[in-house]
Every structure is written in structure tokens, then in C-alpha cells.
User: Fold these one by one.
Assistant:
Number 1:
Amino acid sequence: MKRAKNIALPYAETFADAKAGLPGSGLPWLVTLRADAAGHLAENGLPSRKVEAWKYTNLTALAESALCAPEPDSAVPDDLPQIEGTHRLIFVGGRYRADLSDGALPTVCTLINALDSKDDWLEANLGRIAKPNGHAVVNANTAFMNDGCVLRLTEGAKLDRPLHLVFASVGSAGGVAAHHPRILIVAGKDSQAEIIESHVGTGAYWANPVTEIEVGAGAQVRHIKVQADSLDATHLAYTRAVVATGGRFDSFVMTTGAALSRSEIDVVLDGEDANCRLDGIYLLRGSQHADIATYIDHAKPRCDSDETYKGVLDGNSRGIFQGKIRVAPDAQQTNGNQLSRAILLSDGAEMNAKPELEIYADDVKCSHGATTGELDDDSMFYLRARGIPEDTARHLLVRAFIGEIVDEIETPGTRNYMEKLVENWLSKRGDAQ
């Protein structure tokens, strides 16, 4: 008997009742898009661990939760993140809060406002890059997306400062609130933008963001995501970027929150001389579980990719890195490098790494590697021999390990914010063992 590879998600059955209250319910094209996604979600559910890409992450507990829509008047969590030198838009409980935000930019609007405009451009682009199909995260998000951000850059346009999108999720008294923010970024030829996603919250909830990005010819897009959700939350995220000739896409993901999280990044280098850089750090403690999955498709010749992910795991936490680079048959003169490194600070911490190369061209330079270990004994001895306490020595070595990536962030305000988050995590080491 063939074993099923999916987990039923009863939440999909609520679509019929919920769809009338979702934005854009009067747009035929969106009704069709949502219904298609809801159909895939009902048919396929969530992937089980029998699916190779999900073998390390179990979603049964999520599927068995009493999932519900966010409460309409969610309380605002304390200490919403703020990054110096950015333009900030804040969403609470899945809804844009103009009273907490900096106001709109000419090139930016909320998803609800974009739908109200009935613009043919949105119909042509929403769901074009991240298509609802067999991917459970995209299916659920497309069926139930309530609000989010649309950024449209014309040829040569440049954001004068980074755009900071803050998504604050809040638990619900009636069950586990499911939040499905959607972000659409289309960067025209030779345009430039930096976008930061911050995810925070309180209580138990499911954060399920989807970001779709098109990088035009010669354009540059930097996408930074900070996942600092409640430690009672589940965070499943999917980002897909398509990069045209001479374009550049940079991604940085920082993970410190959620009980269970998975961040999936899918990049297609779809034009000659396109390139991307994917970096990330994850800092875990207690029983946290974080899964990082990347896929880079070198579809055209002379493209470069470089990715480095570093993790620090304490307590009984578990980290996963799954990275795959594919080189198409015609993608000659490809350069692709992939590296995963992790440090275990306790005997109970666990790390799984699965780097992969799939190469169909012969003129390529590709490499991958993965290392997991403890803090270097010689370095610890050197610091202790000079009178530095053990906890301080650990702090210094972890900061140096993580700092190699954080220091590469070019925007000063964003880099300073990341450094503070790292220091905050280190200062609380041992609180949730």
C-alpha cells in the first residue's frame, strides 16, 4: 500500500466561509486565483516527513491546531522593531496600521489598496512568480492572504532609503491565529531597492509570509528578513526571486524566534551575467527548531551565486540547512559556492546539513561544504589563560563567528540593528535551556 505524503489541513475547509471577507472578493481574477490555491491546499494539505524536502520538519502539530483567522482588533505588541534610516510600514494582526507607520511612498502601497485600485498590472503580476501549485506555504498564503505590500519600481528608480515592513502577529483566544502576509516586488531595469521584513509577535500563532520578487535587467534588490517571532509561534516562509540579465539579488535571513520555523528561498538566475548572494544566521536555544532551505537555479550562462549560512545552537534546539545549486545544460561559465557552518553550545543541540549540487554543464566552478562542531578549544584556552571568564570567552567567540556575516551588511542602520539582536541573544543565553 502506498503511503500518503501529505498531512490533511482542516483549515482549508474554512475557505468557503472566509473568502467573502477577504480583500478583492469582487475581482474575478483574484477569486479564481484564490480558489485554485484553496483547491490545491485541500487536495494536498501540508507535506509530511515522507516528502524528501521536509524529512527533518514535522508539521503534524500545526495541522492539528485549532487554526483561525486573526482577531480584527489585535492588540499592538510592545517594542515594535525600528531601524534607523528606514521608511517603516507596520502591519498588526494582518492589517496595515497607518497610525503606526511612516506613511506611504509613491512606489509602495498596501496589498488592500492595490486590490482596491483594480489595476490590470496587479492582475498580471500577483501570483506570477510564486505560483499556487503543490507548494503548501504558497497555497495557504494565496488562498487566505489578507494584506501586505506591493513595491513597483520603474526603470532606473531607486529607493532613497530602505523600506522596513514590520509584521506583528498576535495569538487569538479562539485558537491559533493564522497570518498570511503577501509581498510583491517588481524592480524594473536598472532600479535599486533594499527591503527589510521584520516578524515579531506574542502568543501562539502561525506566520505564513510569501514574498515574490522580480529583478529586472541590471537592477539590484537586497532583501533582508528578521524572524523574531514569539517562541510559541510557527513560522513558515517562502521567497522566490527571478533575476534577469545583469541583475543582482542579495538575501539575508536572521532567525531567532518561533518554536518551529522554516525559511525557504528559491532563486532563478534567468539572464546572462545575473548573480545572487544568500546569507543567513540562526541563533537557537531551548527546544527551537529552524529549517533553512535554499534552491538556486543557474538557468543561463555566466551567472554567479554565493551563499553562506551560520548557526549557533544551544539547549535542545535543532537546526537544518538544505541547500541545492542546479546548473542547467546551457549555463556554461557558472560560478556557484555554498557553505553551511554551525556551532553547538550544548550536548543536547543537533544540526543536520544537506548541501547538494546538480550540474548539467561542463564549464563550471561549483563547491559546497558543511561543518558542525563546538567552540574551538585552543581559542577558549587562549582567552581563559588571559583571565577572561568562560561565559565571556564564549560570548566573544560566538560574536566573532556570527559577526563575519553580519559585518557584510552594507547599510549602517540595518547592520547596527542586527548586531543588537545578536548581543541580546547572547546576553540571554541560558534563560530557556
Number 2:
Amino acid sequence: MKEKELKDFLLKKDEVFKKAYKQHKQLEKKLEKLKQKDFLTEVENMEEKELKKKKLFLKDKMYYLMTEYRKAHK
């Protein structure tokens, strides 16, 4: 199964994957709002870094879940 197909499948069938995906998208929206600003305060800079870390963690989690699904369904 190709990556896109697997993502779509897991979004429908796996609640953990679905939750991680939704959180990832929410963080992406928050980051986009920050990027639209001309200047970030120190607090906003720290928030941006935290959002990026959380977003990366969720992306890694989704890829891990995809890898585990592939292993289990060879």
C-alpha cells in the first residue's frame, strides 16, 4: 500500500492515528498564524519552537504507526 493510501486507511480505521493526525493539523494551523506576523515576541518565539517540537513528535508517531501496520500486514 502506498503512503497516501495507508494514511487514508488509517485515518478511517485507527483512532490513535486519527487523533495524532488531527492534533498535527491543529498545530500546523497555529504555526501558520504565527508565521503571518511580521514580528514575534519572545513568548511567541518560544511558543513557535514548542509547536514545532510537538508537531514533529506527532509526525514521527504517525510514521511509526504506519510502519507498524505495514509490518503486521505483510
